[in-house]
Amino acid sequence: MKIVLFNVKYSPNLGDGAIAECLERELERRFAGAEVLSLDLAGRTEWRAPEGGQARVSKLGILQRMPRWCRDIAVEAVLGARLRSRLRPLWRRALAGADVAVFGGGQLIQDGDLNFPLKLGAAADECRRLRIPYAVHAVGAAPIRSRRGRQLFLRFLSSAADIHIAARDTKSARELAQLTGKDVTVGRDPALLASRVWPAAERPARERPVVGLGVTHPAVLRYHGTDTVRDGDEAVMGLYVQLSESLVAAGYDVALFSNGAAEDEAFIGMLGERLRQAGSTGTHIRIVPRCGTPRELAALLAQFDALIAHRLHASILAYSYRVPHIGLLWDGKLSAYFASVERADYAVPLSAATIPTIVPLLGRARAEGIDAGVHSRVLNDTSDAIDALARALVAALPRGAEADREPVAAELAPPAELAQAGLAQGATAWR
């Protein structure tokens, strides 16, 4: 069996890669001997250290200043040419011989610009052209604001509606149900299974607990955020400095890291320079070098004693490894995720008013830990949703083909050596 996954596996934001890799491994477990192939919606084929962080920030700034209609025209003109010349031929070749396709997960259903509507629509057209049934699984969905985006998404979702559509949280499920007029189930984010896919050894004992502080460029928060984010770059940098110094004063060591995006890496460099000028770096505040793969990022986060971050998948990976964490609110997807794992109290905005409350809140999170019963249920729910996806894929096969392709029941029992290998690169910075 050949299963093609459409996602953003090779995004510089390694959280997207964690979703893809976890879903790949889980489907391979369920379909013994199947070929499971991810196709990156941007045409990327490997993880590379990103370049041009400031260039991306400038581009986001230009797009943000454009009226929506102008932004949509610009994106469609540039991306339309790329879809015709490169992406659609690439996908067409990779889809040859495929039995089924799956779109997801990640925040794919959003039209801040027409990037995802156009890519998803084109990829779905290639599946339809080759008569390959496709499902949609564990996607995040934001309110659709443009007429063109709505048209593209409705066409994309119409072919999946009779096979399988699952959103990663109840908020996204409501958005999709409103868009399609059909019931949508919840299938949790596959990256929640990272601790099962890449087991980790126990965290080492330390005199001072280490807090991973995830750094995100303010341009991203302003461009993609659905909550109000108005602070300029200097103001946000000042907040990160203040929070870092408050954590140190409370007895923590601080590890500044990013999920890997180019703009975040650029900003973390500027933040490090600001901290050096203030004399704050050294023994208790360090910058962690960028991880090269999703597995390395997971290994790094698994070794923190606690975590604070804007990026959703920093929190999702932390949850998987039962690392106490606080989410810094900037988008509705953060609120939806924290509510879905019964941790709504641990999602707060980053502002001058909230910084004095974040350190005590972190202490409370560490004292409470991640509830073992809820954690087990969440991970099992995630696995059960992939079981449902697997059954839907079998049901979508042409009549007579199902007998050879029934999902294979398998217990998750990764080799013991993975527990060590998974930590090889991420843990070294703090030993």
What is this structure's SSE topology?
Layout lengths: L1 E6 L6 H17 L4 E6 L12 H13 L2 H28 L4 E4 L2 E4 L5 H15 L4 E8 L5 H12 L6 E3 L2 H11 L4 E2 L7 H4 L12 E5 L3 H7 L8 H17 L3 E5 L4 H16 L7 E3 L6 H9 L3 E4 L2 H9 L4 E4 L3 H9 L6 E2 L6 H14 L3 H25 L20 H5 L10
Helix pairs in contact: 1-11, 1-15, 2-8, 2-10, 3-4, 4-5, 9-14
Please summarize what this structure is.
The protein is of the alpha/beta class and 431 residues long. The protein has helices at residues 14-30, 53-65, 68-95, 115-129, 147-158, 170-180, 194-197, 218-224, 233-249, 262-277, 294-302, 312-320, 332-340, 355-368, 372-396, 417-421; strands spanning 2-7, 35-40, 100-103, 106-109, 134-141, 165-167, 185-186, 210-214, 253-257, 285-287, 306-309, 325-328, 347-348. The strands form two sheets. Strands 1, 2, 3, 4, 5, 6 and 7 form a seven-stranded parallel β-sheet that branches.
